[in-house]
Amino acid sequence: MELTDKQLKQLQEQVKNVKSVKDLMGKDGLLSQLAAEIINGLLDAERDVHLGYPPHAVDGHNTGNSRNGYSKKTVQSGRGPLELKVPRDRNGSFTPQIVPPHTRVLDGVEEQVLSLYAVGMSTRDISTQLEELYGPSISPTLISEITDRVLTQMNEWQNRPLEPVYAFVFLDAIHLKARREGRVQTAAVYTCLGITLEGKKQLLGLWIGEAEGARFWQTVLTDLANRGVTDILFACVDGLNGFPEAIASVFPRAEVQECVIHAIRRSLQYVAWNNKKAFMRDLKPVYRASTEAEGLQALDHLESVWGAQYPQAVATWRNHWPYLSTFFAYPACIRRIMYTTNAVEAVHRQMRKVTKTKSAFPSEEAALKLLFLNLRIVEKKWTMRGHKWHDVLNYLMVSHRERVEQYL
Questions:
Q1: Taking Cα atoms as reference points, which of 283, 339, 340, 332 lies closest to residue 306?
Q2: pLDDT score, position 6
Q3: pLDDT digits (tens, 9 = 90+) for 293-348
Q4: CB atoms within 10 A of CB 132
Q5: 8 A C-beta contact, residue 134 and residue 118
Q6: Residue 25 pLDDT > 50, yes or no?
Q7: Contact at 8 Å (CB) between 188 and 174?
Q8: Is residue 354's pLDDT more than 90?
Q9: DSSP at 167
């Protein structure tokens, strides 16, 4: 937009009054005034295009429409409140696109609000923060309205089509408190993290339920199938009872590996503190063995030493062995990925960062909204798995050729 001689002269006069950086860039500084003037100029230009003729032009006579003054409007921008003059036409047919009707916050500020909300700040804290930067104009209620606009995006994301095949899927849940039917209750957020055949991490979805259980996990897995997943090569889970059976009911060919780290923690809770170190010394050969036979031999030794004193600690490994030993059938490049749910635990650590300051969420939807916004930021930092993924893919092309070849 080219400045007229009059506008250029006004700008030169305004620049003379700038004595400090604050005068230039502060919330009432010259740049804020210029921003409003530029937007007002663009709005005028929009109306000119809509009418089809410039101001005072003969072409406008008898066209059936004309300019009809302005209405005042204040919007919040990255430089504070901007006083705008929104042009009107006599027929009421002009609708500005630069600042659409009902807009109270410009895009840059919306992104700032969403970013602050995504790191766990409350609507009131965000309002206070923006007031310090730009002056009073964004209330906690308006901030809630801004963040609520992502609900449509969240629903689209939660229901988007997925890849037909995932090499690895990690399934786990965290717990938080949310208000349901007027009472604060503990809820489980079910998290599903997949690794595609190209080695790319994808968060497949977030679901919320009353408590973690195999039956709800079956619902989650059914949702994955309904969104296009036809096969999972390896499912990595904790030791929840009934979990492997739930997976088999939806993806019967998936091989289930229970998290070794979870198994270690589970067994150590039955061991006295002063014996934990010695017990771990005899337990390590079980899960660090080269083969399943070697691992079973180490488990027999563990039982011979500790079975009488801590029978339940050993039984946790015996009872879960069919799913703790799956990784023994595969080389180190695959074992390294599947032996633990650390991949999804890393996601949960990020989730806990933004929920730890919340004693309880006002609703389950509010919890999912915060987690979705936060994980949208986290996903941008994910990269493809390193060069070792080629070793994984080469092995899978031999061991699971008929299940992966057509999708590569």
A1: 283
A2: 55
A3: 999 999 999 999 999 999 999 999 999 999 999 999 999 999 999 999 988 988 88
A4: 10
A5: no
A6: no
A7: yes
A8: no
A9: E
Element (H, E) at 101: none
Greater pLDDT, 110 or 143:
143
Q: How far apart are CA 69 and CA 166, in angstroms?
A: 60
Between helix 292-306 and helix 311-324 the angle, nearest 10°, is: 170
Q: How far is it, in rounded angstroms, from Cα 95 to Cα 104?
A: 15
Helix (H) or strand (E) holding 289: none
Instruction: State the residue for tokens 């804020």.
Output: 32
Which amino acid makes up residue 164? P
Residue among 196, 180, 189, 195 nearest 217 (CA): 189
How far is Cα 72 from Cα 78, in angstroms, rounded to an integer? Answer: 19
Residue 241 DSSP SS3:
coil
Q: Domain limits of the chain?
A: 1-99, 105-148, 161-251+361-408, 260-339
End-to-end CA distance of the chain: 50
Residues 93 and 371: their CA atoms lie apart, in Å, by 41
CATH classification (class only), 161-251+361-408: alpha beta
pLDDT digits (tens, 9 = 90+) for 123-175: 666 566 555 545 545 566 666 666 666 777 788 889 999 999 999 999 999 99
Q: Which amino acid is at 231?
A: D
| CA separation for the pair 314, 270 (Å, rounded) | 9
Q: Which two tokens stand for residue 388?
A: 């070792």
pLDDT band at 82 (very low <50, low <70, confident <90, very high): confident
Spatial separation of the C-alpha atoms in residues 290 and 262, rounded to whole Å:
20
Helix axes 107-118, 364-379, angle to 10 degrees: 100
CB-neighbour burial class of residue 354 (10 A; exposed 0-12, middle 13-18, buried 19+):
buried
Instruction: Give per-residue pLDDT as tens, 372-403.
Output: 888 877 887 787 666 689 999 999 999 999 99
d(CA 207, CA 226): 15
What is the β-pairing status of strands 80-89 and 67-77? antiparallel
Residue 69, classed as helix, strand or coil, is strand
